[in-house]
């Protein structure tokens, strides 16, 4: 199980990068009426969602193998909460757009969800980074 704890920080950067760039590209593309940029952003958001699911599973498998100091536990809790929130937000955005994109109000709701997902993934990354860099969790 310690293998999963050590590999999670290596894998997580791919879906995070996809979500960050995808959100920024899609928000920019939709606000500036650049369909190619919005399409590239949408692809990144969907691919980030698909890639995040196994990375989350690896993280959850690895967490049981780690020994946490008491002061690190709030960061673990925050990290898990924001990871799940981020995944829920991006999944909601993708499903909302896929099912209801013909309605005018969906564009605004979709952009708000992308922005909320962007903030949420950055917050999850902050908590994860603090666990690695401040507390040395899952580092040799």
Explain what the structure shows.
The chain is mainly alpha-helical. The protein has one domain (2-133). The protein is built from five helices and no strands. It is elongated, with a radius of gyration of 16 Å. The chain starts with a helix and ends in a 7-residue tail after the last helix. The model has no long low-confidence stretch (mean pLDDT 94).
Key features of this structure:
about 140 residues, about 85% helix, elongated
Summarize, please:
The protein is an all-alpha fold. It contains five helices and no strands. It has one domain (2-133).
Helical content stands at over 70%
What count of domains describes the coordinates?
Answer: 1
* SSE series: HHHHH
Distance between the termini: 15 Å
The major sheet is characterized as: none
Strand content: under 5%
Counted by DSSP, the helix tally is 5
**Mean pLDDT, all residues:** 94
Shape: elongated
Q: Determine Rg (CA atoms, Å).
A: 16 Å
Are there runs of 5+ residues with pLDDT below 50, and where?
none
Class by SSE composition: mainly alpha
Tell me the layout of helices and strands.
Layout: H1 2-11, H2 13-31, H3 35-63, H4 73-100, H5 104-133
Helix pairs in contact: 1-3, 2-3, 2-5, 3-4, 4-5
